[in-house]
Amino acid sequence: MSIKRIEIVRAHINLVSPFRTSFGTEVDRDLLYVHVIGDDEEGWGECVAMAAPLYSSEYVDGCEEVIKRYLIPLVTPNITAHEFVVAAASIRGNFMAKAAVEAALLDYQLRCTRLSLAGFLGATQTKVASGVSVGIQPDIDTLLGVVEGYRKDGYVRIKLKIEPGFDIDRVRAVRQAFGDEMLLQVDANAAYTIDDAAHLAKLDEFNLLLIEQPLAEEDIVGHVELSKRIATPVCLDESITSYDVARGALDIGACAIINIKPGRVGGYMESKRIHDLCYSRGVPVWCGGMLETGIGRAANLALAALPGFTLPGDTSASDRYFVQDVTEPFVLKDGYIDVPNTVGIGVRPLPDVLQAMTSRVDDYRIG
Fold first, then answer.
1. Residue 127 catalytic?
2. How far apart, in whole angstroms, are the C-alpha atoms of residue 146 and residue 296?
3. Which residues are CB-neighbours of 190 under 8 A, at least 6 positions away?
4. Can you give the pTM of this predicted structure?
């Protein structure tokens, strides 16, 4: 196991349809991949940062700069993913940049040792229940049509993006149209304040699985107060950036559920720590999505197969987002997606597809 080179691959992919949330509308993704290359093996990691610093303070061009300037110099020919995480701890924040490098090193390391990422993390499931995230639609009729389509596809849980003015009436319409049996949750992406508590309490009548990140990510105390004033379980997403933050949020009652996104917390090993913390306390977790292509999606499926992931995640099929994924597509089967069970993350990019998407490749020699 000896790393020779790291490539930084920049590419672009269009979404099958616009995806609107409270922080903006996405129609495509600027892709950033980390490609670790050794004598006989390779590893791939996907950076999940958006083009602009809207979901978080990180953005894809900034991540590229951090990876090239600060993270690649930490990589030695024989470094393990764990050793990289320890070395990178001296660099503040930049979780999505770190996660992309860690994922590539993990994929490479596990391919060299002939282990799967699912096995390495401790997965107990061979397939994962799949939910789908529905962006804010222009009107209720359009929303109902979109949800109906995903129901026919077989998704076992529907998540509605909400924001002020696009919330109570829409949730009521979906619940009335599809019944109380359907697993339903909402995601505010920090669009509300604690002054909206009485308004958000109106969601209680709809028997939701959870409301995700209703308040600003920094407002942990506000989430404590909101949790006391509404019956719908509060789930934190953007607020949870590390194991320590997750532990503190649980200790003070800021949430009852946690969405684990590897890119947001700095990687799959930190995600595993957060999972283990929640599992030990009986706190449900689920795996969120960041419009990943097959490289990131494969790794997320391995994580979502751990025993504490008891709620369906956003690990949707490839065709939910892309006409042609960069890897062989992930396919929904009776509401589930199979977890890759070969070495590493279990997939590689399709060379011709990746080449057609790629705008630039920068090469860095190691050692």
1. no
2. 25
3. 22, 23, 213, 214, 215, 216, 217, 238
4. 0.95
Q: Which of 4, 98, 202, 261 is catalytic?
A: 261
- Pairing verdict, β 3-21 and 24-38: antiparallel
Domains 3-114+350-359 and 118-338 share a fold: no
Sequence-distant (6+) residues with CB within 8 A of 323 are 14, 16
Domain 3-114+350-359 has CATH 3.30.390.10: yes
Instruction: Report whether 280 contacts 258 (CB < 8 A).
Output: no
**Separation of alpha carbons 245 and 174, rounded Å:** 34
Q: How far is CA 141 from the centre of its chain?
A: 29
* pLDDT value of residue 161: 97
| pLDDT of res. 37 | 98
CA distance 336 to 316: 9
Signed CA dihedral, 9, 316, 135, 283: sign only: negative
pLDDT of residue 261: 97
Catalytic residue among 68, 161, 272, 333: 161
Measure CA of the first residue to CA of the last residue in the chain; give whole Å.
Answer: 13
Task: Give the pLDDT confidence of 263-278 residue by residue, as tens digits.
Answer: 999 999 999 999 999 9
Stretch (H or E) spanning 296: helix 294-304
Q: Can you give the pLDDT at residue 247? A: 98
Residue closest to 322 by CA, chosen among 19, 53, 61? 19
The CATH number corresponding to 118-338 among 3.50.50.60, 3.40.50.720, 3.20.20.120, 3.90.180.10 equals: 3.20.20.120
Beta bridge partners of 230: none
pLDDT score recorded for residue 42: 97
State which residues of the chain have pLDDT below 70: none
CB 254 within 8 A of CB 223: yes
Is 261 an active-site residue? yes
* Domain extent listing, the chain: 3-114+350-359, 118-338
Rounded to 5 degrees, φ, ψ at 60 are -65, -40
27-57 residue pLDDT tens: 999 999 999 999 899 999 999 999 999 999 9
Nearest to 187 by CA among 167, 204, 172: 167
